[in-house]
Design goal:
PTR2_symporter_CS, two-stranded antiparallel sheet, mainly alpha, about 5% strand, transmembrane, transmembrane helix, 3 domains, membrane, 10 strands, about 60% helix, POT_fam, Growth Hormone, Chain: A
């Protein structure tokens, strides 16, 4: 009986173990969890069941954002009675804030709430901002009043209500943008900034310590104690060796047999900081393109307001609506890129996706030069017509607004190559525990691009309005020279492209150790990021070798 009990007990333990293993096999095993924090199931989590909700939320948010953004400069000039330069500055500042707040949202998602609850919380803030903005434009007492001549006069309170709604929307955007494009609900792994600060402090405290020639002597424990949850270790790289000092062991690093994380860091921690630093030059080159892109919501719209807005004899379109051609350009170039350009380029490059992500970004930067050149040429021709026929006081020059289509079209084409390539590049090259942060970092190029545009407008206005001159961007653009402003941006884009080529050739890719469990990667949905739990069985090293490479 004893032997039977032992045998029965052993069989029961084996059944429990087998059941546990079977349950684990049903999990995604890549750190993904459901909204309650439980391991996500392969069959019931993600795939195309989740995509409609993710894409639907993103579609509604983007529809609201672009509906406001493209019309905002006209609202500020016509309803709040602001000048062209002031309105452009306010639009750029608001748009820049919309793309700087994702740093806050990404930090909260990675460190505390996780992506799901971050999106849910900040979406509520976004909706509240939309309600307040709508009230400021429609409710009596909150909306500006206009006199019999059509000139509106906004009070301080009305302006405050409008901008309060706008900046609540900017705050809400911060929790949505870094979490939605590459959405997977993962447990927060603690503050990534703390890990980076520990490396900085440790390396500075050991600035006199000599880094050993044999890098295998650097501190890297065999267990995962110094690795963030759901992350892989990183191999040592030979760049930025000053930070290797943080991984050099000394007698002072151990207090009562415990490792002081502010004096001794693992090689993986050091490489995480190096990965972020290596991304910064690539990141910086995206700022100028974002400055170019921001003109669609400001000067492109103001330029269009001075042209013939008729579409047929009895129908006029708002100049802001021409941004639809940017969207049409994106929708047109996405399938052309995937179905024609990539297969053609693959024949010559041997690269799985035709181009490396850095090459794709470089092509986009090149195309953006021509978008500014096209805008400058159009404005030059428009001003020639103004001077030839003395149209200075004419509100709408008899030149069709549809001549703006090429500049919108070229911006959309550049956007296809740059924005998604940059987003995927930052996501893949970021440390595993900092991907939301680095996705947000990519978005900050748009923020800084808007702020640079504000700075340029203010500098140009200050310089060109001396001695009573109208300047490049006056309230009446018929007296101005925004063609010069477009040419300035084109020249900046040429210089920026040269810098991008140099830093791309210098870039060193991160070296992760091992693979995610089950070698599960995310299916690449062309130009729409990754949908959760679309399994694509391929080893990380094979993906790394085929997808990346020098510029």
């Amino acid at each position: 009986m004893a032997e039977e009990d032992i045998y029965t007990g052993t069989m029961a333990e084996e059944d429990i173990y087998a059941g546990t293993m079977a349950e684990e096999d049903n999990n995604t095993k890549d750190g993904t969890v459901d909204y309650r924090g439980r391991p996500a199931k392969k069959k019931t989590t993600g795939t195309w069941r989740a995509c409609p909700y993710i894409l639907g939320n993103e579609c509604c948010e983007r529809l609201a954002y672009y509906g406001m953004g493209t019309n905002l400069v006209n609202y500020l000039t016509k309803r709040l009675n602001q000048g062209n330069a002031t309105a452009s500055t306010n639009v750029n500042n608001w748009s820049g804030t919309c793309y700087i707040t994702p740093l806050l949202g990404a930090f909260i998602a990675d460190a505390y709430l996780g992506r799901f609850w971050t999106i849910a919380t900040f979406s509520s803030i976004y909706v509240f901002g939309l309600v307040l903005l709508t009230m400021s434009a429609s409710v009596h007492g909150l909306k500006p009043t206009c006199d019999s001549s059509g000139v509106c006069h906004a009070t301080m309170g009305q302006s405050v209500a409008c901008f309060a709604g706008l900046y609540l929307i900017a705050l809400g955007t911060g929790g949505i943008k870094p979490c939605t494009p590459l959405f997977r609900n993962q447990k927060p792994a603690g503050s990534p900034l703390t890990r980076l600060c520990q490396v900085l402090v440790a390396s500075l405290m050991k600035f006199r310590v000599v880094v050993p020639t044999d890098k295998s002597l650097l501190y890297e424990p065999a267990d995962d104690k110094f690795v963030a949850k759901g992350s892989r270790k990183l191999d040592h790289t030979d760049m930025l060796i000053f930070f290797d000092k943080a991984a050099v062991e000394t007698e002072e690093d151990h207090i009562k047999d415990l490792v002081n994380p502010w004096r001794l860091c693992s090689v993986t921690q050091v490489e995480e900081l190096k990965s972020i630093i290596r991304l910064l030059p690539i990141w910086a080159t995206g700022i100028v393109f974002s400055t170019v892109y921001s003109q669609m919501n400001t000067l492109f719209v103001l330029q269009g307001d001075t042209m013939d807005l008729h579409m047929g004899p009895h129908f006029q379109i708002p100049s802001a609506s021409l941004s639809i051609f940017d969207t049409i350009s994106v929708l047109m170039w996405v399938p052309i890129y995937d179905q024609i350009i990539v297969p053609f380029a693959r024949k010559f490059s041997g690269h799985k996706f035709g181009f490396t992500q850095l090459q794709r970004m470089g092509i986009g930067l090149f195309i953006s030069i021509f978008s500014m050149a096209a805008a400058a040429v159009l404005e030059l021709l428009r001003l020639r017509m103004v001077r030839r026929h003395n149209y200075y006081e004419l509100s709408h020059v008899p030149m069709s607004v549809f001549w703006q289509i090429p500049q919108y079209f070229l911006v959309g084409c550049a956007e296809v190559f740059i924005n998604i390539g940059q987003l995927e590049f930052f996501y893949d090259q970021a440390p595993d525990s900092m991907r939301s942060m680095c996705t947000a970092l990519a978005l900050t190029t748009t923020a800084l691009g808007n702020f640079v545009s504000t700075l340029l407008v203010n500098i140009v206005t200050s310089i060109t309005t001396k001695n009573g001159k109208a300047g490049w961007i006056p309230d009446n653009l018929n007296y101005g020279h925004i063609d010069y402003f477009y040419l300035l941006l084109a020249i900046m884009s040429v210089v920026n492209l040269g810098i991008f080529i140099l830093v791309s050739r210098w870039y060193t890719y991160k070296k992760p150790v091992g693979e995610f469990p089950s070698n599960t990667l995310w299916r690449r949905i062309p130009f729409s990021g990754y949908c959760a739990n679309q399994e694509y069985q391929v080893s990380y090293q094979d993906k790394h070798n085929k997808q990346y490479g020098k510029f």
